[in-house]
């Protein structure tokens, strides 16, 4: 069934910023890169840092066109970080890690090479303690590459 739909990739790579809000008190702004390695498959890597933390997330995303330069996507990945202060409750110092699921929609504009995305999904902290939460993200990226 999926093979009968043509995949018209909007861009090859998009670079910009992403902001996340989470019920686990992990609200971050980060540098974000999304790259298609084989349509409709993409990787998204997000890197954030602040006064008391550093954070990295890697996601695999399956993308599918909707209409008029809109695509939906779904996927998941892993994240890890380090904090040296009371940034995330109950973590006060040390490493943390987990997994994230994501479902979202994105739009790439015709008249400017800008891609915007909105996604949401469950997030799990597995290190140092198990916690379950929900995360919402918004990205704005410069899109370039094959259209």
Would you tell me the structural class of the helices and strands?
A: mainly beta
Rg (CA only): 16 Å
Q: In CATH terms, what is the fold-level topology?
A: Porin
Q: Order of strands across the widest beta sheet?
A: 1-2-3-4-5-6-7-8
Helix content: under 10%
Major beta sheet summary: 8 strands, antiparallel, barrel
Q: Helical segment tally?
A: 0
When the domains are counted, the total is: 1
Uncertain regions: pLDDT < 50 for 5+ in a row?
1-7
**Mean model confidence by pLDDT:** 86
Distance between the ends = 24 Å
Task: Write down how many β-strands occur, each being a DSSP E stretch of 2 or more residues.
Answer: 8
State which percent range the strand residues make up: over 45%
